[in-house]
Amino acid sequence: MKLNIQEIRKLPEGLYFEQNLDLAADLRKRNQEILDVKNIQVTGKVQYEDRMFFLDYLLSYTIVLASSRSMEPVELEESYPVNEIFMEGATNQLDQEILDEDLVLPIENGEIDLAESVSDNILLNIPIKVLTAEEEAGQGFVSGNDWQIMTEEEFQAQQAVKKEENSPFAGLQGLFNEDE
Known about the structure:
Layout lengths: L1 E3 H6 L4 E7 L2 H7 L3 E16 L2 E15 L6 E15 L5 H8 L4 E2 L4 E3 H11 L8 H4 L6 E2 L2 E2 L3 H14 L15
Parallel strand pairs: 5-6
Antiparallel strand pairs: 1-7, 2-3, 3-4, 4-5, 8-9
């Protein structure tokens, strides 16, 4: 969906929108970690004020990613506000500095591309660590021949047991039981 800046300028209260978008193919092409994206919904408005266009919307979607541990598909429900500022071409040095520092985004071809904004924000908000419900609960750790993934607490407990077994006094344990 493209928002024409001439139409936005004509509306002092701003241009309101509510859209359902299908960007799954584009997002999968841009990031191979994405297995699927569905139910993309944007609700918000764009408003013109003082040579700048303010794009504010609520972005909601369901994204399917592979688990960081087991590679099982994990569905994540996401919803967050997006606020972006756009400006037409720079007319002075200050405008150019603002554009160069990425404080505002440039407007191309007299339009604000809502689909591009949504795609970029979805890609920027992909979590680094993705776990299934079982993995988050501390179960479902992967293991193999002579190795396993464990929590830090499990590792500390295992090290304490090994240290106790390797103690030179471990053989003396039970030597002076009070029962005898």
